[in-house]
Structures are given as structure tokens and as C-alpha cells.
Write a structure and sequence with these properties.
Blueprint lengths: L4 E11 L3 E2 L2 E2 H11 L5 E5 L2 E3 L5 E3 L10 E8 L1 H15 L3 E9 L6 H11 L1 E16 L3 E2 L2 E2 H11 L5 E5 L2 E3 L5 E3 L10 E8 L1 H14 L4 E14 L3 H9 L1
Length: 245
């Protein structure tokens, strides 16, 4: 299993039509790496290139057969690279192999292991104080050419806010006293939009400077709320414990 720390990045350059024992060379290399427990590998298909023979390879609509450049790369510990490299040199043949020093900051995790880690972070919280934020904007309001309400949702997610719900109104007016409504007979409309956000006061106050910049004509209000129950994807085991209690 690949660990954080010094490692080697191995890159092989071959042609798409190169063969190995009657099979595509890149596919044979990938199989070899897979069955020799290499942590992970990628095959990347190029659009154009040339190799030692100086033959130009490129994608062209009128050509039915191609020999496009293929790159296979993986990152592994020095010991594993030393183990597989001799066979790779034999398989690649006229292709190119390069090995570079690299540093693994965070190794990839299997889905099972990642799931176990997420399970430890899941929250089942009852009864507490929180803040309810309501944001009132218009459907046509923009932020960097994007609907403002969508931009607010994205910004909230990027700032780890627990959740946001967007409500679309059918009728309303704001500070400019102009009626906003949805109409089935009109292609243009500017319906009122309300975003509801509940999280801790500390986290909501952190996003207020961003909202001050984003919401130019809308309204943002904060209210105290009591959280009766807040569940975040807790497991079946937790549910059974809750039922027993």
C-alpha cells in the first residue's frame, strides 16, 4: 500500500497500436501492474506526437487507422518500482520509460477504508442552539454572470456550511417596491428567491463578509433557533441504538 512520503513516478510512452503477445501493449502493461499490486495506474491517450523514428502521429478525421501516443503512469514506493521495472523494460520495447522522484502528500484510499473514516466523522446531534439565516434575492440577480442564488449555494458549500435550501416564491416585492412574480404567459420573470441556512453562529458569521459582497440589493436576516434533531447520514447501527433508547 502506497504511503505518504518519498516515492517514484514512472511514466511509459508507447504507441496505441503497439502489441504485446497479440494484445494492445498499454492494456498488457496495465494488467501487469494491476496483478503485481501496484497502487494505481492511468492510461492517457494523446492527440499528437512523434517518437524516436520521427513519424508524426495525430488525430485526423479522414484517417481510419491511427497510432496515437499513449502514456501509462503510476506512482509507487522505490521497492515496488525496482520489482516491476525489469519486466516493464522488456514489455515497452521501442517505447520510452522515465522515472522521477516525487513526494506523496496524501495517498489514495480504498472506498471501504474511506467509508470507515467518514463513518467516524458522521454526526448525530440533538438539541442545541443554532442560527437560522434567510437570504432574500431575485431570480434574475447575478453574481459574476451566474444566478446569484446558485452562487450563494456554491459559496456556502465551499465554506462547509451544513446545508442550504432554496425556495422559489410566486409573488413578492422588496426595497424598490417593484412586484416580482412568476407568469406562465411571460418568457421573462424575476421571481423572489429565499435561501434558508441553519448552522452555528460562528460559521455563519464567517461567511457574512462574502455575502455582503455578493448580495447587493437583497436582504439577509439571522434568527435564533433550537435544533431538536440534526442527523447527517448516520449508519443503521446508530438508528437501531436510537430506536432502543
Amino acid at each position: 500500500m502506497l504511503q505518504a512520503g518519498p516515492a517514484k513516478k514512472v511514466t511509459m510512452h508507447v504507441g496505441e497500436d503497439h502489441q504485446y503477445h497479440g494484445h494492445s501493449l498499454y492494456s498488457a502493461i496495465l494488467d501487469f501492474l494491476f496483478y503485481h499490486q501496484v497502487s494505481g495506474a492511468n492510461v492517457i491517450r494523446g492527440m499528437a506526437g512523434f517518437g524516436a523514428d520521427h513519424h508524426m502521429h495525430s488525430t485526423r478525421i479522414l484517417r481510419l487507422t491511427e497510432n496515437l501516443p499513449i502514456r501509462i503512469e503510476f506512482i509507487e514506493a522505490q521497492e515496488k518500482v525496482d520489482e516491476v521495472l525489469p519486466k516493464l523494460q522488456e514489455m515497452v520495447g521501442s517505447g520510452l520509460i522515465e522515472v522521477q522522484d516525487t513526494m506523496v502528500v496524501k495517498p489514495a484510499e480504498t472506498a471501504k477504508k474511506a467509508g470507515a473514516r467518514v463513518e467516524q466523522q458522521r454526526v448525530l446531534k440533538r438539541e442545541g442552539k443554532a442560527k437560522l439565516m434567510r437570504i432574500y434575492v431575485g431570480e434574475n440577480d447575478k453574481w459574476h454572470d451566474k444566478p446569484l442564488y446558485k452562487a450563494i449555494v456554491e459559496s456556502m458549500r465551499a465554506n462547509d456550511i451544513a446545508g442550504v435550501t432554496v425556495y422559489q416564491g410566486i409573488l413578492g416585492y422588496g426595497a424598490n417596491r417593484r412586484i416580482h412574480k412568476g407568469s406562465s404567459l411571460s418568457l421573462s420573470h424575476d421571481r423572489p428567491m429565499m435561501l434558508s441556512v441553519i448552522d452555528t453562529e460562528e460559521k455563519l458569521l464567517k461567511v457574512m463578509p462574502l455575502l455582503d459582497e455578493m448580495v447587493q440589493q437583497g436582504l439577509v436576516v439571522l434568527s435564533d433557533v433550537d435544533v431538536i434533531k440534526y442527523s447527517h447520514d448516520y449508519s443503521g447501527e446508530d438508528r437501531r441504538k436510537e430506536e432502543r433508547s
